[in-house]
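ARCHIVE CARD
Drawer: 12
Card no.: 0347
Subject: one protein chain, sequence and derived structure
Cross-reference: see card 0346
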Amino acid sequence: MLTAKGQATRDRIVTAASELMFERGVAGTSTEDVQAAAGVSTSQIYHYFRDKKALVRAVIAHQTEVVVGHQEALLAELDSIASLRAWADAIVQIQQGLGCKGGCPIGSLGAEVAEHDAEARADVKNGFERWERAIRDGLHSMRDKGELSREADPERLAVALLATLQGGLAMTQVRRDTVVLEIALDQAIDHIETFTR
């Protein structure tokens, strides 16, 4: 168990690594870069993380909490198609605020680690499953309240919506605009709207 000071130091390292890896990617971020950004010594980094792979896994956990934790709060309040569109609008606004740089913090990490780090890939997979579950639970809630018909399948709709979102975020990063993301989310939600009563 870490002391309060130790936890604060570890958190500072993970936050610095998360910001650098979001901007530069995993391969473009060295432990020396993290050390300088966090204002810690090399020994402090290796005190909390046995190697860069362990640090990357901590970054994945951090980004999952930041991104999905925020999404869970929004998705838990779904009660209408209008609230679903408000959720989509919030995602678009976040991308616009970032200048359409970086893509999805979780998806970008996943693309880098999937083929060479099985543990990190599993962590990203778990993050996506948590996000999918949050979307699914929100859609279930809409169906339970009668906003969606019984024919709606929240499991399949959640998979489709998350996949649409990830593709839209990737294209937003490359195009440096949110046009494709907005169109893709609108079309996905239009499909969900066909299940409204």
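Annotation on reverse: Residues 1-49 form a domain with the Arc Repressor Mutant, subunit A fold (CATH 1.10.10.60). The CA atoms of residues 93 and 178 lie 9 Å apart.
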